[in-house]
Structures are given as C-alpha cells and as structure tokens.
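Appendix C. Worked example: FAD-dependent oxidoreductase domain-containing protein 1
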Amino acid sequence: LGGQQEHPSPYFWGFPRYVFSWHCPNGPGLSCPFLIDTSGAYFRRDGVAGNYLGGMSPSEEEEPDPSDLSVDHDYFQEQVWPRLARRVPAFESLRVRASWAGYYDYNTFDRNGVLGPHPRLENMFLAAGFSGHGLQHSPAAGRAVAELLIKGRYETLDLRRLGWDRLVAGEPLEEHGV
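Step 2, the predicted output written as structure tokens:
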C-alpha cells in the first residue's frame, strides 16, 4: 500500500486525511446536498451562515506520511481549491478558517467492514474497517452487534458474510456496486 510502514494489524490501516472549513457567504444555499465532484473534491454545508466543510483524498503517489497528522495547507491551495472553484464559481473567493487531520481507517483485505465475534478472542466483538461508510453503516452495524450480544445471533439482518470467516479463509467479499 504505497510503501506504508509495517502496521500491527495485517487488515486494518489508516491514512491521514485533511478536512478544511471555510466561509463563503455567496456559496450554495441550504438546499445544497453533500457534493462529491467528479474530480474527487467534496464539500457540504456546515450550518446556516455560509460555512462549509470539504477536502479530497490524495492520489496513491501523494499519500501523506501516516506518522504525521499535521495539515498540508498547500494541498488545499494547489489541489482542492481549484477543483472546488471550478465546480462552484463562488468558491473562488472562499477563505479557509480551520483545518484538521485524522485517519481514514479501512480494511485492507477487501475494503468492507468486519462485523461479529473475533475468531480467537472469546467475548470480543468487532465492528470495524467500514472506511468512509462507517457513519452510514453504523445504525445497522450497531443493531447487529447488539443482537449478537443480547440474543447470540443476528435477527434483523443476517450479516454473517461480514464476519471474520472470510478473512481467515482468505476469501474477499467482492463489492460489485463500487
């Protein structure tokens, strides 16, 4: 994975990602949805006062050092901002107010979540590796883990295919919708 350093887990890894916050009083209105441009730049409104959040994942060649969580402001100026300004002309005058970095965590085996009891550690349940879909999948994943803990089985949704068995067997869960 892009010359990454050895990590204690062979399946879960994170790459630094930057999020930028800016003000643009003439930007898209309240009806503007979360938007991902075809270039990969994305943004969404942040409240009602002309504030926005956004960023863009770097190419594999531009991946930042995973041990450094300092924000690369040049990346925004050179890569993100021009794409945003092409998509939304009002963003030509945006002003970055804040930024932060965090890890984009995912399952390197097949880029799908891993859910359920650990195959070797008794009484350990996991819901991890969902990458950028974690927030979207969290209601179902939370319910599934709760059912496993309380009832000992899935009841609402059968999510066994997201279990550890596929990792142990070396059989990735192919995602055809991406």
